[in-house]
Amino acid sequence: MPKIKTHQATSKRFSITKGKKLRRRKAGQDHFNSRESGNTVRNKRRDITVHTTDEKNVRSFIPYN
Fold this sequence. Notes:
By secondary structure, this protein is an alpha+beta fold.
């Protein structure tokens, strides 16, 4: 059986924790952040866990992790 290729764009956007959870960056961090409040900017720095309904789809693109 041949190896499955990893989808590189997906592997760059998602990381897998030690407990096998998927993490991703919050959206909307690139520009137009001066209008946001300090709390919003601080919260955007945090990574968030991928929802379980989306997790199966994302894991199919990253087969060996």
